[in-house]
Known about the structure:
Elements: E1 2-6, E2 9-18, H1 23-35, E3 40-51, H2 53-68, E4 72-76, H3 82-90, E5 98-99
Parallel strand pairs: 2-3, 3-4, 4-5
Antiparallel strand pairs: 1-2
Helix pairs in contact: 1-2
Amino acid sequence: MEIVRxxxxxxxxxxxxxxxxxxxxxKESMFELIKEGVRKVYLDVRELKSxxxxxxxxxxxxxxxxxxxxxxMEIVNLKEGYVKKLFDLIKxxxxxxxxx
Length: 100
């Protein structure tokens, strides 16, 4: 995971997997950004190869925390493959806007 911050916006580049072993670090990093005043997050999933239910849960938890703080999130660079199929299956785009 790489984070590039620009004022109250941040682009979070997820890489590899977001699962039970990595999702806690993701959540803690995101909560820290929100605490520091970030209100717009672009979740770049171009290099995300897989995720499990804990990863999905943490994405939704962070989205909820942002909304509580008058913020927003967009999923960007969603490409064909496992992650897109999973996001389509669970219809995450009905909750979090997706910009392909």
